[in-house]
Transcriptional repressor (Turicibacter bilis), 288 residues
Amino acid sequence: MTQLSKYEAMIVKSGSKLTKQRKQILKVIVDHSDEHFSAETLYDLVRHIDSSIGIATVYRTLELFEKLKIIRNVKIKNDGVNYYDVIDLDEQNHFHHHLICTTCNRIIEIADELESYEAFIKEKYGFNVTDHDLTLYGTCASCQ
Amino acid sequence: MTQLSKYEAMIVKSGSKLTKQRKQILKVIVDHSDEHFSAETLYDLVRHIDSSIGIATVYRTLELFEKLKIIRNVKIKNDGVNYYDVIDLDEQNHFHHHLICTTCNRIIEIADELESYEAFIKEKYGFNVTDHDLTLYGTCASCQ
DNA sequence: GTGTGTGCAAACCTTTTGCAACCGG
DNA sequence: CCGGTTGCAAAAGGTTTGCACACAC
């Protein structure tokens, strides 16, 4: 069973229909699983496959995929655009972090955990962390 | 010298004019220094003082204050609105984190550092962290 | 067949911009 | 005074929505 068909199974399982458009969008997302994408980006990519698709469908599909936890919204920019990335199937949790180089604007994804920090927060504030969003800004190795 | 006049000094020092509108907006921000605010929120608050102010002025002022590091943009929601909070004058660095309770939606600000984690990132990726943005989601003490 | 999903266009909402008038230094 | 700043209104840009038609199950 491929990565793609597992996501398709998630759509079917949720009771949603596996339409041509959803398949096309899903394929483009999986083929670009190492990138961050916006509705506009996806729309452009999918239009190469099927020029009749509408931007509204892309927005509605992103909303569905986010609800199904196929993709997640990542808060990496404040330019008024929503960006997403795929949630890996064998990702044990929803944690992933970004290193953004303020010199070359490169975005590096890392998976290192914050377990000890979260234990500390639990201890100090009685707050039980279930998810998080971490972006580190600075200069990457090649820009230093 | 009050907190307010220190911020006013920062405006003058930057070469910008200390207009009536900027003073009014600054006062409202300082009076609500424990909250996160949007342009709309500020606009509503300032209109109570001076009903002739324009929303465009609020946006332009937020842009100026952000550049002067009087306020910072916080990525706490994806509702298409930009939120800000005041940067405390005696804040040693620009680090501050949010705990967002997914049950009651309360936002708790904390100041605990991530120094050891950043040292680890430097070691492993050669990435030099100068700033960061961390939001932890979960359940607060009273919601558990 | 039935109801969910789609494409289109209009509407919406936040933010930005052009411009003439205004006012702070 | 002079140039930065403002208020207004229009525009821009991203996202949402109403509706008739299409299609997955």
User: Anything to note?
Assistant: Chain A has two domains: 1-90, 93-144.
